[in-house]
Design a protein that fits this description.
Layout lengths: L12 H16 L2 E9 L1 H14 L5 H15 L5 E6 L2 E6 L5 E3 L1 E3 L2 E3 L2 E2 L7 H16 L13 E5 L18 E5 L3 E7 L2 E15 L5 H16 L6
Parallel strand pairs: 4-8, 8-9
Antiparallel strand pairs: 1-11, 2-3, 4-7, 5-6, 9-11, 10-11
Helix pairs in contact: 3-4, 3-5
């Protein structure tokens, strides 16, 4: 007779926690979703040059974190949360732009946080991202390194995913989901050229942020990624 235990895979502590948090988010946050594409041909060409000039490998994730953080400075509602106080419901804007980014680890997805990302250079973000990613994959992240997230990033481009929609984590109101950089034929100036494009999707809590505001925010991210020297 077949042993039922052989057909069951126990959840890890991380998987249980993520499941509880995502269920909480889906049940409590009425989200809407918007998508855009960015031409990152210049960004991809710039990366190897920056490795020489800055002395550190700059991942595409570092660019996304930097662009996301700087865009928040122009659109602060993106890090707002509902705050029910004695004076009634209001929106509380987070004091810091802390970007949580998903890392696939053997024990499950972990989310290290780059604090005050808007105040850090691209090189500083790249260095922190590398350190935190390595710690996440080796199960060495501290609780402090996973706390304080005010906005989220998830990038599945490395897994060949062209586009997807993320789930906003409970401590935030916005998540940016990034797909793979792919070559596309783009018409312009009377001719068609092949460009490197990336899909950018936002999931946003509609109680706090409306569609027009989120669209402007996503446009700001797109513009910065298409002019990557602004991010250096």
């Amino acid at each position: 007779m077949e042993n039922p235990a052989e057909n069951h895979i126990p959840l890890t502590r991380i998987q249980k926690l993520i499941g509880e948090r995502m269920l909480e988010s889906k049940a409590s946050k009425p989200c809407f979703y918007i998508e855009s594409k960015a031409d990152v041909a210049e960004l991809m060409d710039l990366r190897p040059k920056l490795k020489k000039s800055l002395g550190i490998k700059i991942t595409t994730n570092a660019f996304y974190i930097r662009a996301l953080a700087l865009a928040v400075k122009e659109y602060p509602l993106m890090v707002g949360l509902l705050d029910s106080g004695v004076a009634g419901d209001n929106i509380r804007i987070a004091d810091c732009v802390n970007v949580g980014f998903a890392v696939n680890a053997p024990q499950g997805v972990v989310v290290p946080v780059i604090r005050d990302a808007d105040k850090k250079t691209l090189a500083e973000i790249a260095s922190l991202e590398r350190i935190l990613t390595e710690k996440g994959r080796s199960d060495k992240l501290t609780l402090e390194e996973m706390e304080g997230e005010t906005i989220a990033l998830s990038n599945l481009g490395a897994y060949g995913i062209d586009s997807f929609i993320g789930i906003v984590p409970p401590p935030a109101s916005t998540i940016l989901a990034v797909g793979n950089v792919i070559k596309e034929a783009v018409p312009g100036n009377g001719k068609t050229t092949v460009r490197k494009m990336v899909s950018l999707s936002l999931a946003v809590d509609h109680r706090i942020i409306n569609g027009a505001y989120a669209a402007q925010f996503l446009g700001c991210i797109t513009e910065r990624l298409q002019n990557p020297r602004q991010l250096v």
